[in-house]
Write a structure and sequence with these properties.
Layout lengths: L2 E5 L3 H15 L15 H7 L11 H18 L10 E4 L7 H6 L2 E3 L7 E3 L5 H5 L9 H17 L2 E5 L2 E2 L1 E4 L9 H9 L2 H8 L1 H25 L7 E4 L8 H7 L1 H8 L8 E4 L8 H6 L5 E2 L8 H8 L4 E6 L1 H6 L2 H15 L5 E5 L9 H14 L12
Parallel strand pairs: 1-5, 2-7, 8-9, 9-10, 10-11, 11-12
Antiparallel strand pairs: 3-4, 5-6
Length: 387
């Protein structure tokens, strides 16, 4: 075999994590609330001693390091979401610039920092001239090429879990999940907020083009990789500074078009890093979200329970800076508080809110599972919170 990797992790724990997540999807629990983190390659590169830019050299280099990152993650970081079967899943990764690059943003590739999308549209007139790119443009083309290469590498890989044979799965190509509004801000910069007030119709035309480009790209990916997909998750981080009226005007219609290409009962995930409580009503009533994923620590657990508990699955939301700089006991105390408030709602996945910073101590991540085990679950799991 070209690649060999043995993961020191019992299959019994893998199966137990799968049961926890299956129960959580039904707003139930087994022995404890499941735990899951947003851990991206930028976290693992310094741990394994490589410059981050090395990760993007070519498909084979990225594939090799994804296997190493997976081994470290499964063996060293206690959580439930990453490994729910004897499988290591790999996928071409380009931080959050996949769609932005393909739509025409300028991407900066630093040595040891995350990739950055820089605006290329400076005027409303330039925005009006924006043309929908083909689905093979920029990193979209590289995504499919690397997926194909990784699929070949997977066939040349042996994976074992404590001697039990596993395998490598390659994720199907797809758009990144950044919302049309987030991509508009990537392409224009913060001027896009002012343009929504001064030139709303031009902004709507721009958002429509971005949405069409995403839909066309996703349809292309599904043609070249005809594999069943689930629902869709979107990130709306740029919406946290908007009023609910502007959110409903400039975000909701375009998000609904993306969600709407799937079956009516398909999952609809949403992520917002920062403050979002002023948008919760629209998330429920307009977008019909089924999960709020890695929601920002700025939303108090009591607020999330009151506004969203029982209406959608919740994943979050411990302060990443506390996780980075705080004590193990301090992290555990924050986890206990979130568990006490949110567990009775059902459907909780305890995690960061949002993104685990590089150099976060593993013992602070272990505190999540310790708190979940100590708190257990209520004898009767409620479908909705009692307010």
């Amino acid at each position: 075999m070209r690649f060999n990797i043995d993961i020191d992790y019992p299959i019994e724990k893998v199966q137990q994590s799968a049961r926890r997540l299956e129960a959580r999807a039904r707003f139930r629990y087994t022995d404890r609330v499941p735990v899951g983190f947003c851990l991206v390659p930028r976290f693992f590169a310094p741990v394994l001693g490589i410059p981050y830019c090395e990760f993007f050299r070519d498909a084979e280099t990225q594939y090799y390091w994804e296997l190493q990152f997976a081994k470290y993650r499964i063996e060293q970081i206690p959580e439930d979401t990453f490994c729910t079967g004897p499988t290591v899943t790999v996928y071409p990764y380009f931080d959050n610039v996949l769609d932005s690059d393909s739509l025409g943003a300028e991407v900066v590739w630093p040595e040891n920092e995350t990739l950055q999308a820089c605006p290329t549209i400076r005027t409303v007139e330039a925005m009006e001239r924006f043309e929908i790119p083909p689905p093979s443009a920029g990193l979209w083309g590289r995504l499919v090429d690397w997926c194909n290469q990784m699929r070949e590498f997977a066939e040349q890989t042996r994976v074992t879990f404590n001697g039990v044979e596993g395998h490598v799965a390659v994720g199907a190509p797809g758009v990144s999940g950044l919302s049309p509004h987030m991509l508009a801000v990537d392409l224009v910069g913060t001027d896009f907020y002012m343009w929504q007030i001064e030139n709303p119709e031009a902004c709507h035309r721009f958002l429509d083009k971005i949405t069409c480009a995403l839909l066309q790209a996703q349809e292309h990916f599904e043609r070249v990789w005809p594999r069943p997909r689930g629902g869709m998750g979107l990130a709306e981080d740029s919406a946290q500074s908007m009023s609910v009226d502007h959110f409903r005007e400039f975000c909701v219609p375009y998000d609904l078009r993306l969600y709407g290409r799937n079956a009516p009962d398909a999952p609809r995930g949403l992520h917002i890093c920062g403050r979002s409580e002023h948008l919760h009503e629209a998330m429920v009533e307009d977008l019909h979200i089924t999960s709020f994923d890695l929601f920002g620590y700025q939303v108090a657990p009591e607020v999330a329970a009151h506004n969203l508990g029982g209406k959608m699955l919740l994943w979050g939301n411990i302060n990443p800076m506390l996780m980075l700089n705080g004590t193990r006991e301090g992290v555990k105390q924050a986890c206990r508080h979130a568990l006490e408030v949110l567990t009775p709602c059902g459907g909780l996945l305890l995690g960061d809110g949002a993104n685990v910073c590089s150099a976060t101590p593993v013992e602070n991540l272990s505190a999540f599972v310790e708190a979940a085990e100590e708190c257990g679950v209520p004898e009767t799991t409620l479908h909705t919170c009692v307010n």
